[in-house]
Each structure stands twice: as structure tokens, then as C-alpha cells.
DNA sequence: CATTACTAGTTTCATCTGAAACTAAGTCAA
DNA sequence: TTGACTTAGTTTCAGATGAAACTAGTAATG
């Protein structure tokens, strides 16, 4: 009746276990990439309401604007790098932002392939409207943490990025 | 062409700004939801190679398997809740896993709408092959952090989830 | 029981997505 | 110069996505 379950052998049988926990069951609920992903998607979904519902901006569109608001003039390539979005996505976001007249697109005099992106006046107006809301939202979220933890989180993110740079890719 | 941009003051001026004032420019590069999203997408993309390239599993498919490996038998609904994926996505992942014979799908005797999901033998075999690799990968990633930081990160994730539960949605 | 409301899971639809092909422009080297 | 190579950005294509409609079964109320 009781089917033998040999997939997880009791550790007595395995005197020579490697230290690396081959017999420990995999715990999804503490698997960090998974946890990060669940949390982040949740946060993104919620936050995106802020600019989707009220301003009709998609996430990629908002990201382009957010980058331009801070670093314009930039090329599409610059935006893609800074935002970790692929260039097709950036290209599409740029196209629709231009159609909505929220950004301007001028030829780069130094490189005829490239394009100089800026927020339009209207784009800047919207940017100036969204950013305080975003900041406010973030502040609300971070009230779940102590300032030490918030700082710590930033540091951890830095370190994980560095780790990815070095050893994971 | 080049409009003067008086909204974004050159950063030298800002060293002494009051902490929270409304006139501080929005700093995308320290905006936490954005940073989390960039990092997480990067991690997910990289990690997913582990089960995509070698086992042909998509991210949703692997998530379903990971949940079943740990908590089966479960309904599709259970999986959706646990993994924070919407039910359509789960449904599609289940369909393709069943086609690949990696899971079994039985009627729940207590509720004819619901379905009892389990890993098949083959599914379990693959699960048992992937999980040590995933664990290993995670360990590699976490070598960027001290154990204190890793623990702290888990706690921070918990707190942010709680914060979302309470006040953000 | 009926009627109504709800839940599990699937399907449809319009949109979004990433990868790769593509166009056009710049660079390099002989 | 020319040709080979690289880069910026767009487009194409096949597949993935989320929202909402839908089907079928369950629960709650009278």
C-alpha cells in the first residue's frame, strides 16, 4: 500500500553525501530568484496602474520617458542600455511616444543613423506630473522597511548586479 | 532645436538639497521598483537558460513543475495562487506539460471542476535533475552577498510583500 | 428542488514580446 | 577608393500575454 518512495533517500543510506545538499528537497518558497520575481512582478503591476490608468502609458513607454526626463538628449541605444530593455521594445515605445507627441526625435548631426530623443513640452509636463506620484508611491512602499533596510536593499541590488556581471553570464 | 531645459538642474547644485523636497529631480537610477525590475529580469533571463535550453521548459512551465514538485497534489488554482501567475497562464503551462507527459491530471473526486495535478515519473525525474542545478546557480549568485545580507534580503522581501498586502493594493 | 451566485479551468481576442532579418549609415584597413 | 565589418534603428514573424468571455460544476437561498 505504501509505495516505496525512492526519490528522496533517507540520509542514513548515503554515508558519503557531498556537502552540497543533494538530498535536501528543493524549497521553491525560499528560492531567491523566484521570490524576487514574484515580488517584483507584483510591485510592477501595481505601480504601473499609476501611469497606465491615468496617463495611458505602457511600462516601456514610461521607462523611456523616465530615462529621457533624467538624461535627455539620448539615443534609442542609450535608452535601451540604461533601461535594460531590448532595442525593439525601445523602438516601439519611441514610435508610440512620438505619435502621442510626448517626445521629439531629431537627427544626430554627428551620426546619421542615430537619433536624438528629448521630451516634448507636453512630455515634460506629464513627466513632471508623474514623478512626484511615483516618488510618493515608492515612499509608501518603503514604509514597510527601516531606513537601514532600504539602504541595505540598494546595496544588495548593487552587489547582485556586480555578481551577474562577473560570474553568471 | 535644442531647447533650454530648466527643469533638470545640473547635479552640482543639488548636494545640499533637503531630503524629501518636491523639487528634487526624480532619480530613476535609485527608484526602487525600477531597480528591482531590472535586476529581477536580468536574473530570470539568465536562470531560465538552465531549464529552457537543456529541458525545453518555459518559465511558466518550470514554475508549475517547481510547485508540483514541492506541493503536489494541487489544483491549477493552487498553483496560480502560489506562483502569482494568472490562471490562463497556468492553464496553458499545464496543457503543454501534460502533452509532454511531465505531469498527470486527474479529476478531483471532491470537486468535478477541479483537477489534481502531479508530476509524472518522468516529470519527477526532470525535476530531480533541475533542482540541484537551480540550487547550485542560486548559491553562485548569493556568493555576491554575505550570509547576513542574504538573510536580510529574504526578510526585506517578506516585509515588502506584507506592505503590498496592507497598503498598496 | 429552482434560482441565483460563485468558482475552476479553458478559450478567444487583441496586443505585446524577443529574436532574427533587414536597411541604412559609419568605420576600418589596404 | 573599395570591400568587409560594425552599429543604430526598424520591421517581420511566430509565439506569449492578460483580460474577458465562456463552459461546466458547486454553493447558498428561498
Query: What's the rounded overall pLDDT mean of chain A?
Result: 85
Strand content of chain A: 5-15%
Adjacency order of strands in the biggest sheet of chain A: 1-2
- Radius of gyration of chain A, in angstroms, nearest whole number: 23 Å
Q: Structural class of chain A, please?
A: mainly alpha
Alpha plus pi helix count of chain A:
6
Can you write the helix and strand succession of chain A as a string?
HHHHEEHH
Oligomer: homodimer
**pLDDT below 50 for ≥5 consecutive residues: which ranges of chain A?**
1-21
Cα end-to-end separation of chain A: 48 Å
As a percent range, the share of helical residues of chain A equals: 55-70%
For the sheet with most strands of chain A, the description reads: 2 strands, antiparallel
Count of distinct strands of chain A: 2
Chain pair with largest interface: A-B, 70 and 69 residues
Write the topology of this structure.
2 copies of one chain form a homodimer.
Chain A: H1 32-55, H2 59-71, H3 76-83, H4 87-99, E1 103-108, E2 111-119, H5 121-142, H6 147-168
Antiparallel strand pairs in A: 1-2
Chain A binds a DNA duplex (30 and 30 nucleotides) through α4 and β2.
Description:
2 copies of one chain form a homodimer. The first copy, chain A, is mainly α and 169 residues long. Chain A is built from 6 helices and 2 strands. A two-stranded antiparallel sheet of chain A has the order 1-2. In chain A, a hairpin with a 2-residue loop joins strand 1 (103-108) and strand 2 (111-119). In chain A, helix 1 crosses helix 5 (121-142) and helix 2 crosses helix 3. Chain A is globular and about 60 Å long. The termini of chain A are far apart. At the A-B interface, helix 1, helix 2, helix 5 and helix 6 of A face helix 1, helix 2, helix 5 and helix 6 of B.
Amino acid at each position: 500500500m505504501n509505495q516505496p518512495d525512492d526519490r528522496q533517500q533517507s540520509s542514513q543510506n548515503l554515508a558519503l553525501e557531498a556537502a552540497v545538499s543533494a538530498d535536501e528537497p528543493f524549497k521553491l518558497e525560499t528560492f531567491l530568484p523566484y521570490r524576487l520575481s514574484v515580488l517584483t512582478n507584483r510591485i510592477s503591476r501595481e505601480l504601473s496602474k499609476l501611469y497606465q490608468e491615468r496617463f495611458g502609458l505602457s511600462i516601456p513607454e514610461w521607462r523611456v520617458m523616465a530615462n529621457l526626463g533624467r538624461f535627455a538628449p539620448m539615443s534609442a541605444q542609450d535608452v535601451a542600455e540604461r533601461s535594460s530593455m531590448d532595442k525593439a521594445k525601445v523602438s516601439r515605445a519611441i514610435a508610440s511616444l512620438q505619435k502621442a507627441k510626448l517626445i521629439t526625435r531629431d537627427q544626430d548631426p554627428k551620426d546619421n543613423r542615430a537619433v536624438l530623443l528629448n521630451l516634448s513640452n507636453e512630455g515634460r509636463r506629464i513627466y513632471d506630473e508623474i514623478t512626484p506620484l511615483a516618488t510618493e508611491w515608492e515612499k509608501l512602499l518603503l514604509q514597510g522597511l527601516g531606513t537601514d533596510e532600504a539602504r541595505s536593499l540598494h546595496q544588495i541590488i548593487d552587489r547582485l548586479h556586480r555578481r551577474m556581471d562577473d560570474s553568471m553570464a
